[in-house]
Write a structure and sequence with these properties.
With about 575 residues, the protein is of the alpha+beta class. The chain is about 45% helix and about 15% strand. Helix 17 packs antiparallel against helix 18.
Length: about 575
């Protein structure tokens, strides 16, 4: 029996030679839980571990994304390899020489096109390097790079080159090398002329930055214009070897330092990474733009737990840092954000103040994401103005209240109080406001969760109504209106709920004194004490419920009051209210 061209006995030999826990532990931090080993899934973003490895069966399974299989499957996905490549990698690690011939034969056809493409990109990279180093055209590019603080060592390390202004310089070289033009076109190096008569270079008169895969092979290029033309940066198109959404620039060089320190320093572009490298910061990678993707987050999280974001100091850079910090934190990373002077980028800062100061005062002094958000938020207010100070305090309180950990909230309450001490703002008052806001937010989340669950059952309606023609919730209405409406619907649908009042909690209110929203005997939104309770089922005489039966305010239907003709406030079928709550 074979799998493709690889026989089953070879696959079995590879599986037996490896302990799946040991292999997976190279990429995922696992914790033993009974007979399983658990950790955060490396294939999707999550905060609670749903990834399990079963040593007895030598398999893994993620109950979040559904991916599972053997150690070969794991290596396939974690290293982005084909089945044959994963078998070969594991066979080489285990020293299984018998597998090499079979695997090599299977890989031959699979890698024919890959090898041709890698050779093509390598040829183009060498061509661009030659133009930069040995031609008159290249001298202008070298002068520009030196003006940006990029010297010969960095040029050599990152294999920077220059694409000449001539329309078909590279296309002519490829023609001389008898390279199939259709392959070169598919690789993104050349493009077909509008009249279809031939091919021209994609990159012209640009400084060329090769983009490498994890093994240091060239898979694409980024070209920067010299004369300020548009676009400023031009990247290779997406190909079989290059996906911008999953690529991290300089990962092949930064990996050892990242692994050693368990920290990634994330920049916006090539020049920032190169300048930081020259300044001694060897953990830097770039996301090829400010828009970080979930796939890039997963790759970062597989490498390290901590991330330092170092983006431009302008408003766009700060906004991108805040957005990407949230994405990284949702992916399980601990995030700090470097603070740069307004309008200053990492490249400029290093050239002005030097590498040592950059490492110490920018990267080393990066703020936790929460503190950075408060720091960035404060820039919008003049605290000497009373009205703006109150607005800042309200916003800061709401932000701190959204933190889940009480210790974290306490820490930032103290910092906020210290910041506002000169204005006479009390720490104890801030703490009360934060905890009240946190309680409201927590209750609101629970309420929204229940609303979402009801929506799935066809019981909610905002813009439109459920298919049954009825709706419980209307998001255009105030929360207290929805809360009371929901309570009424449940009480009228369920006799047991309606008559819980016999235990003394059957009251409804219009407003809650604590959160000014509304709810029950204890406000369902904030847990605060109610104001002006009103009896839902009438007065003590039972005028609305239970008729002459009186006695029991809630008048259970099995009592005499119900038999005497009192109205029933429950139904055998679920009942919901119309848009006016009737």
């Amino acid at each position: 029996m074979t799998r493709g061209r690889i026989s089953e006995h070879v696959v079995e030999s590879v599986l037996k030679a490896h302990d799946i826990v040991e292999v997976v532990s190279r990429y995922v931090r696992l914790t033993k839980r009974g007979k399983y080993w658990k950790g955060l899934c490396p294939f999707h973003s999550e905060k609670t571990p749903s990834f399990a490895v079963t040593p007895d069966r030598q398999i893994f399974k993620c109950f979040g994304c559904g991916l599972g299989g053997t150690v070969i499957t794991f290596i396939q996905h974690i290293e982005n390899l084909s089945f044959a490549e994963a078998v070969r990698k594991l066979a080489e690690e285990a020293g299984i020489s018998a597998a090499e011939a079979e695997v090599a034969a299977d890989l031959t056809r699979q890698e024919e096109w890959r090898g041709a493409w890698f050779d093509l990109y390598e040829l183009a990279c060498s061509f661009y390097q030659h133009i930069l180093k040995f031609t008159e055209e290249g001298k202008r590019a070298v002068a520009y790079l030196r003006g940006r603080g990029i010297g010969p060592e960095a040029i050599e390390t990152f294999r920077i080159g220059f694409a000449p202004a001539r329309w078909d310089a590279l296309a002519d070289i490829l023609r001389q090398k008898r390279i199939d033009p259709s392959i070169a076109e598919e690789s993104g190096l050349i493009v077909r002329k509008a009249d279809g008569s031939g091919f021209i270079d994609r990159f012209r008169e640009r400084i060329m930055f090769p983009i490498f895969d994890d093994k240091g092979r060239v898979v694409a290029f980024g070209g920067r214009t010299l004369d300020g033309g548009e676009p400023k940066y031009l990247n290779s198109p997406e190909t079989k070897l290059f996906s911008k959404s999953s690529t991290l620039y300089n990962l092949h060089l930064a990996r050892p330092a990242v692994r050693s320190d368990n920290t990634v320093v994330l920049f916006e572009g090539y020049v920032d990474v190169i300048q930081a490298w020259s300044a001694g910061e060897r953990r830097g990678v770039a996301s090829l733009g400010t828009a970080l993707t979930e796939e890039q987050v997963r790759r970062i999280r597989r490498l390290a737990e901590r991330v330092v974001l170092c983006y431009d100091g302008d408003s766009a850079g700060r906004a991108a840092a805040l957005k990407n910090a949230e994405l990284l934190e949702s992916g399980g990373c601990s995030v700090r954000i470097a603070v740069l002077p307004d309008g200053c980028d990492p490249d400029e800062y290093i050239r002005r103040f030097g590498g040592e100061r950059f490492r110490r005062e920018v990267i080393g002094a990066a703020l936790p994401s929460v503190k950075y958000r408060l720091h960035d938020f404060r820039k919008n207010f003049r605290l000497q103005e009373e009205g703006e100070r109150h607005d800042y305090v309200r916003g800061a309180v709401e932000f701190i209240a959204a933190l889940d950990l009480a210790t974290e909230r306490e820490h930032y309450v103290r910092e906020l109080a210290a910041e506002l001490a000169e204005f006479g703002v009390s720490e104890s008052v801030l703490r009360q406001d934060v905890e009240a806001a946190h309680l409201r937010l927590r209750s609101r989340r629970r309420f929204d969760g229940k609303r979402a669950a009801l929506a799935k059952r066809g019981l909610s309606g905002s813009a439109g109504k459920a298919s049954s023609g009825s709706a419980v919730f209307d998001v255009e209405r105030p929360d207290y209106w929805n809360a009371e409406r929901f309570l009424l619907a449940v009480m009228m649908a369920d006799a047991d709920v309606a008559f819980l009042g016999s235990a003394g909690i059957g009251r409804v209110v219009s407003r809650c004194r604590a959160c000014r929203v509304g709810g029950l005997f204890v406000c369902i939104l904030c847990g605060g004490e109610v104001a002006r309770p009103q009896r839902f089922h009438g007065d003590a005489s039972g005028s609305e419920v239970g008729g002459a039966g009186g006695g029991n305010r809630m008048g259970r239907p099995d009592g005499a009051g119900s038999a005497a003709g009192g109205r029933r406030l429950y139904s055998e079928n679920p009942v919901s209210l119309d848009q006016d709550g009737n």
